[in-house]
Fold:
Amino acid sequence: MLSIPAENRADLWNILLKKVERYASEVHLLPVSPVLDPGAVRGYLRQFQFQYPLSPENAIDVAADGLTRWQVHTPHPCYFGLFNPAPTTMGIAADTLTAAFNPQMAAWSHNPFANEVENHVVRAIGSKFGYTNADGTFCSGGMEANHTALLTALTHHFPGFATDGLASLPLRPVLYTSSESHHSILKAARMAGLGTVAVRQVPVDEKLRLRVDVLCQWIQQDRASGLAPFLVVATAGTTSAGVVDPLTEIADLCEREFLWMHTDAAWGGAAVLLPEFGELLHGIGRSDSITFDAHKWFSVPMGAGVYLTRHPEILSQTFHVTSAYMPKDATDLDVVDPHTHSMQWSRRFTGLKVFLSLLVAGWDGYASAIRHQASMGDLLRTLLRDTGWNIANDTVLPVVCFEDPGKSPEHQRAIANLVVASGKAWISPTVIAGRTVIRACITHYGTAPDDIDTLVKALHEARAQLNLAPAFGG
Ligand SMILES: *Cc1c(COP(=O)(O)O)cnc(C)c1O
Structure:
């Protein structure tokens, strides 16, 4: 039963493709989010104790029904959430091919094609950031890419780290990032054995950008008190508010202070494709390494992170170990075995979904999708401003933070909750620089003016409903 007989497979693929197509063409008709009821999901699953085999068709129904009923439909055009776009059609096709061919990405010799596709795509994306000789690796996502960055920076800065570990270092390493940066940095510090205390969270200015003057002071103070600064993580497109840190100033400082500069451009990095946003990411090519998430603005299915670097030796210095059992057939070739070059060992062919999406859309296709989303962000900002909401962040990227002016944090959160409960759109509350706001991000390449209208109407209904119930308001 592990393989369905060939004569039945065609039917099965048909059924499967119908489900996939039905979801893609009808997801916009579903409520964006489900009722959150763990008991209902567990009750549904309790029917399946794996004693009696189900038919393959029934099994697919179980999964497709469950996913339809119980997920936030991030591929819905009114999902205004956390950078989880609708997947590209070619990305879905690529993941299917990948599952079927199941290339093993640990050793180059097992998959010359798949490995060279990834190298090709890594260099192509790297060149967009201004890297002339980019190296890098596909990762599960931004978390792993940031973790990789931290490890490469440690390895670069403390040559004994890879073999002798942190305990061998005479001084305690510390790194810097803004208080608005992504929390994966904290987790990476923990996983690297540095502890979260090693992450110095630098305050931000009134535009929510890392304050380079404070960063500079802290580095001097930390050096004076016997710590070893080694890394600054800049953010290009913060998660809450889409803010880009002053990259050029940070690059200057890192050069002066001999620090590794990593730029976390997981989402915002894609703006590099638009000449009109050139100024925004100016200086990013001076970073020693960059996190770019293809499953964010490049809209491929999860997970597809990319770690990029302009130091071609550093990944091998960080991850190379030898083993008797790994294939040696490529030893004499000018190639790199991925398992010596990245955190993962057996790995999925992550690069294919980016390669096929790029082959079909081209850079221009991506640029126009991104430009469209930016314009939907502008439209949302305008409509909100015109109807009495206060815009709380300053960015050209399509993430809009706003508030019902003069109302309490509870009130802002209640508005977001009511919109989500309506099933019409998904948005979320967040906190920027200590202030509770409502956040709506254009993540879907297909979000249209009508969808923006739907969101704005849902917001007005929520606001009206709360104003009728003063006990709830602030
Ligand atoms: C999404 C994001 C991450 C985390 O990436 P995952 O792919 O979710 O692991 C890190 N940093 C930033 C700025 C992000 O937007």
The radius of gyration is 24 Å.
